[in-house]
């Protein structure tokens, strides 16, 4: 029976009831040791099972999966996930193959997975839970979550955050510290009131006169109430001034200390083994001269249970008290016996680690092998720890450097950049091997880059390379140039290029970036075009050691102004990430894709991709990505005239990351007619990389229009000259990259504004007809329509303005719609104010519904859509069910007929 938990029981009951109704949910039960988390989970499991038995509904019985974190296994890769999924491993065959392969590797029933994304396992867990829920509601209970290994914790939380309509209830229980689950609702357990404590003691037969002292000492902690009550019966005059948790721990140690020595040794073996594996315990105990019979006294006292081939402590604190109450020599002897008796190499490695008190190369080699196995299962944090331990006890200094470097790289892959930096720094002085040194430099640079300082990352690589490139360092120099470019650091780009040239190495990417740093677009852009052509020829070629270059390839088309190529590259990258389950790489690819979709006028698609990217970035700890994603939302809000939304996005972004948001504010000011403010925000960037970002280029036309509007055209001359040089160079013939016709059209529009010569408008519109950037075309039509109206060519003006208004309406560009309508009224079109906006079907859908509907329209099955969007098939069906009425259809077949 539980005391004082009525509210908590009701909330858990509602969670399970929702799962029975097909609605998933997750909850974290948090509280101090002994507060009753395990008791609450036991009650929930028992209550749910009893409800099933009483209902008699055999077709939809609730299934319960349970896992308990084990403190000594916190470094054992996927130990918790194996415990959870081992009973249902037969369901793996129903998963998409990449996911099934990832879980087989975790369970040790398949080949190792070399280098898959670490979040693919979380997606596989989500899919298998959803698949199990197809047979009936599923209750997943996770106890002592603070002791789960990190790989298991990441996978479970990734799945928990994506539960929606599968019929899965997940309840995690963890202590106040040591376990973080952002995005999961929490239920915090408090200590019992005096009344509830009294009821508990009364039911244990404690007389009223004797209850007060126990309640005072326990401070309402349920476990403390029970243990202190028992201790008072044995030692009525015991005093304990220690904190509650320490007093409970001390009580357990005292109780253990009164047991026979052979019993204490057998308990120590069980505590050190931790998993309750009876065959292993028996093999180890035989080596130490004890046996199962020596546990009788511990069972009789209620400290331990032996049943169904498993040895279990009544409470984790008893195991901790047993282990910590033993002397070091005895603990080492027990771990040595367990290592000798173990048949699982990872289990053996864990016990070898526990007995390593000094240098031992043989043990180091075994730990390194265990690390490689963990790495093959994408348990990067566990693999990093094992490589680190192997390095610390290795007697070979070069081997230590190599293992520490690998530990650093894996820590970075596992999302622990600061730890990776410390490990790489430790490895540096240990090696004279140039290859290892280069690897260390690359890892440290990647760490700094991930932390947001691209310039420092570039300098770190340059410092490692000599005055001239060699075959072994040319890749580092290319990465340094890429980092420098992304940081706006032209000096670093030039330095990398100079060293490549000194070594006789040719690289069109670095040479092109160098030229642009010198403001030589005429020669720089064709070099970048050559690099881009290679990527278009082989878009799925990837080099994991040159992440920055891959990122730059996605933006290369944007630097060139070739929207078609940029959109193709970004779409290919997103497809690749989805097909391979590369969740960690997906946010950047979605970011670039969304930017290009905004340029193509596909605002709702862009918002859907940004929403997904933001969710993944939060889940995977890539918080610096959120500011860059905010720039996409801000540009859409600026076009639509949503000043409040632009302000909200700007206020929540660090100053150093506000470039994209500043450009959005300029566009907002321009749309709202605040030309002074728009021009004040605009300053010409200095020569170098910043001049060739798509943001800087996109504001040139804004600067010209604002300057002309306030009668100060000279303030836009430099920006226009730079933009015109870029547009002219960007239109040079290339074999794979089409010319940026939209850019030449915008140049002509700017010339028309400055010269008041209408032929520039007509030439611009001719180029706009070749495609690209509908918003820019509508702006040209609006300005030309205004000119035509002023020239009293009203019929032509109305035709031009109506075309502009149609585009603005589709884009929901409210300020620009008002300008177009006002001009139409002035030109004699009095019906425009009564015109209703066309109903846009996709505006009825949420971002995720839009993604699901588009994929369904293209013929993808629910399971295929789920794999691409990192959802469960049931959630996909849920989104379709909600989307059909909004679109006025009833099936997938009818979706094909819609223009989405």
Automatic annotation (TrEMBL):
Family matches, as SMART domains: HTH_LUXR
What are the protein's UniProt keywords?
A: ATP-binding, Nucleotide-binding
**Which Pfam families did the record assign?**
AAA_16, GerE
Segments forming domain HTH luxR-type: 838-900
Q: Which InterPro entries match?
A: AAA_16 (IPR041664), P-loop_NTPase (IPR027417), Sig_transdc_resp-reg_C-effctor (IPR016032), Tscrpt_reg_LuxR_C (IPR000792), WH-like_DNA-bd_sf (IPR036388)
Superkingdom in the source lineage: Bacteria
User: What's the name of the protein?
Assistant: LuxR family transcriptional regulator
This protein's species is Streptomyces sodiiphilus
